[in-house]
Amino acid sequence: FDLRAGFYRCVFAPNPVMEGSIREHEPASSDATVLDPFRMTCLTPALQHGAATTSLHVVQNSRKVAFAGSFGGDQFFFHHVVELISGPLHYNLGPATGSTILVVSGHGFDEFYDPTSQYTCVFSRSDGTMHTLAKILNFSTITCITPAWGRHHSDSWGSKDFEQKPLGPVSVQLFKGDKPVPRTHAKEDEFLFYSVIRNISAFNAG
Q1: Inter-CA distances, 179 with 90, 135, 141, Å
Q2: Which CATH architecture best describes the domain 93-197?
Q3: Which domain of life is it from (predicted)?
Q4: Which of 41, 144, 139 is nearest to 89 (CA)?
């Protein structure tokens, strides 16, 4: 590689011939940085389904650059694998009665390719935890339903209108089976639940 030659790009393309590969719609590319005459670096793409056998070739001014050494030719194949999930939980607010949809966005959700996998959202609070099943919508989106984890305030001496008040932060962690999913950004996200003060009318008899 010529340090003075200017612009290099790495082009990643799917390899539908290789067994076990996953087709992608379009090749992906990234700028390459030449480290020395024998090495360069470039970023691998975020493949749609998390893993694929992929070919790589280097382009300089729209021309393929031939590799020397053990690979030879102008391309080689590698199996690209990303970790299961890398993405934040979208911040949301949930009512005490639960049933609010919490969206988890990322990539590598593999239920379509591993039907034995089951994801759960674990909601943790100072007084305990609750588990709800997560639903996989597609390769990049999971949803889970917030649990009915509110408290009801009762006042036997008068009446109060319906209102909502903060109950405190609840942390959320995504699990696959009985193991936490690595590299989620969910562990510090807060999902605020609200306690409900119901409309109560009371009086003393006598």
Answers
A1: 21, 17, 19
A2: Sandwich (2.60)
A3: Eukaryota
A4: 144
| Tokens found for residue 178 | 């009985």
Distance CA 147, CA 130 (A): 7
- Distance between CA atoms of residues 201 and 198, nearest Å: 10
How many whole angstroms from its chain centre is CA 97? 26
Contact present, 161 and 199 (Cβ < 8 Å) = yes
Q: Would you list the domain boundaries of the chain? A: 8-81, 93-197
The whole-angstrom separation of Cα 168 and Cα 5 is 58
Beta-strand relationship, 192-197 and 93-94: parallel
CA nearest 59: which of 78, 32, 79?
Answer: 32
Query: How far, in Å, are 64, 151, 201 from residue 35 at the CA level?
Result: 19, 60, 76
Token reading at 172: 């959320």
Question: Residue 140: beta bridge partners?
Answer: none
Supply 31's token pair: 């700028």
pLDDT tens over the chain, length 206 residues: 777 766 788 887 765 443 333 344 456 777 888 888 777 777 776 655 545 556 677 888 778 877 665 454 555 555 554 443 333 444 333 444 566 677 766 666 655 546 667 778 777 666 667 788 887 776 667 777 777 654 433 343 343 433 334 445 566 667 777 777 654 443 333 444 433 333 333 333 33
